[in-house]
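INFO  loader      accepted 1 record
INFO  loader      residues=144
INFO  predictor   begin
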Amino acid sequence: MKGELEVRLIRSDELNGYIEFPYARQVFKIERVRKEIRGGVIRKEEKEVICGLTSLSKEKAKAKRLLELNRRHWEIENRLFWVRDVTFDEDRSRVRKKNGTEIMSSLRNLAISLIRLKREFRYIPSALRYFSMHIDKAMMLLGI
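INFO  predictor   done
INFO  writer      dumping tokens
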């Protein structure tokens, strides 16, 4: 038997009247425990604690909702930044002058978003290869 078990615990407290941070309503702490299991035996255990702050009240975001929002946040981060890092090899970019890095990041984000909106391609790299060979289709995607 091989697998991984992940347990998430959350604790949140209302902040009304405790701090003077605009819109802060709750602070929360998420504890994650990951256990790698092989042959019914725990081989590896990792613990991680994160803290967060939200403008949502306890009525709008109970513990279950906060956990869900936290997971979705990382899904979005991973979907965008992983693609930029791996597919576009952004970390090795030589663009360094003035606003070049911000402009290139925005252009990469635009390309990723347009490809995902098109919904014809399962993978970003295959879409990039396709559009590099079919410039006319890329221009049509841009509305040009």
